[in-house]
Design brief:
362 residues, alpha+beta, Uridine Diphospho-n-acetylenolpyruvylglucosamine Reductase, domain 3, Alpha-Beta Plaits, GMP Synthetase, Chain A, domain 3, 3 domains, seven-stranded antiparallel β-sheet, five-stranded antiparallel β-sheet, 12 helices, 37% helix
């Protein structure tokens, strides 16, 4: 159901993400949530994993878009949240469901707040001498309330891999996609550009950003690497601005020290007034399936330990699932883990719903 006046749309939880977006585009609206997996994921999956999309720096993540939920609880009862602009009626029960990964209930319907499609868009590409300079520039313009929807800062190795033909070797590339009213957009492009230049940035060809945007949903495949005996994966974490540089250096050093690792790189793709994320990519080899599993687990160990050591968050937008579950106790602390376990016991005392994920020690 689409309500143009209230800018709300209600979808069944199994609705394909791209189909949901296309349904509101016909009315000149957009959800504003665009994960790379949009053509493969569902609206209910976005909620269950507390997802973030590629436009989040301006438009927020899924928790900023959910206006209402329908959830089937383990006892068979159905909970429907009231759709209002805001409420101060006790704890927000939507937040209890967001990110619960199916452990507390099954999401069956989602009402999302929409926005008008942007009338104008502009892509820019900048490069910096090092990652620290780029991070400081992003911090400056985000904290100045300039919020391009796409803000992607790549370390030197990722920059060389993706944009090597357009960037001097050793520099770190920044993709920006600005959207909005043409007059406001022009002001934002100019202000952000000045901040980038203040931090030593060199402007590159706009087509780098435009090409990235055109292919932003092309799904990568790990199969060609696996066929050659190389395992690849990504791990996303987050930290405040004062800690993210240290976190990057520690992850790269600690993961690189794992026997079998061929490469480890990172980029930042979701930024806030208080900090940003790191999206870490790695490739490794091992002796057969067992060897690949060992090196894979050691890379995860190194990344999680580095993140916790500097005070970062162990998951920015991919959720916890099974792989990260054993670090949830460290993430939440003893009291937090006990609180989450108590909620689970109260809502699902027989632990029927999606056992083995999210909850530490289950």
């Amino acid at each position: 159901h689409l309500d143009v006046t209230d800018q709300l749309a209600t979808f069944g939880a199994g609705t394909n993400g791209l189909e949901a977006e296309r349904a509101v585009e016909a009315a000149g609206l957009t959800i504003g949530h665009w994960p790379q997996s949009i053509a493969l994921s569902t609206v209910g999956g976005w909620v269950a994993t507390r997802a973030a999309g590629q436009l989040s720096t301006a438009y927020g993540s899924i928790e900023d878009m959910v206006a209402g939920l329908e959830v089937v609880l383990p006892d068979g009862s159905v909970h429907r949240t009231r759709v209002t602009p805001r409420a101060a009626a006790g704890p927000d029960l939507r937040a209890l469901v967001l990110g619960s990964e199916g452990t507390l209930g099954v999401v069956t319907e989602v009402t999302l707040a929409l926005r008008r499609q942007a009338p104008a868009r502009a892509g820019r590409y900048w490069s910096f001498a090092d990652l620290d300079a780029g991070l400081e520039a992003v911090r400056r313009f985000v904290q100045s309330d300039w919020r391009p929807p796409v803000v992607r800062l790549y370390d030197a190795r990722e920059t060389a891999r993706h944009f090597g033909d357009d960037t001097e070797r050793g520099r770190c590339g920044l993709i920006l996609v600005h959207e909005g009213d043409p007059d406001v957009l022009a002001l934002e492009v100019a202000a952000v550009g000045r901040i980038c230049e203040d931090h030593g940035a060199v402007r590159g060809p706009d087509r780098v950003a435009e090409t990235w945007f055109a292919h932003r949903s092309d799904p990568p495949s790990a199969l060609p690497y696996l066929e050659q005996g190389v395992i690849v994966d990504t791990i996303e974490v987050a930290a405040t601005w004062s800690r993210v540089g240290e976190l990057y250096r520690r992850i790269v050093a600690d993961v690189s020290a794992v026997d079998g690792v061929l490469a480890v790189t990172a980029h930042s793709s979701h930024s806030y007034r208080t900090g940003t994320n790191l999206y870490v990519s790695f490739g490794a080899v091992g002796d057969g399936p067992a060897g690949l599993r060992r090196v894979y687990e050691r890379v995860w160990d190194a990344t999680m330990h580095a993140t916790l050591a500097v005070g970062g968050g162990i998951s920015h937008h991919h959720g916890i699932g099974r792989v990260r579950r054993r670090w949830m106790g460290d993430e939440l602390g003893e009291a937090g883990a006990a609180l989450l376990a108590a909620v689970k016991d109260a809502v699902d005392p027989d632990h029927l719903f999606n056992p083995g994920v999210l909850l530490p020690g289950e």
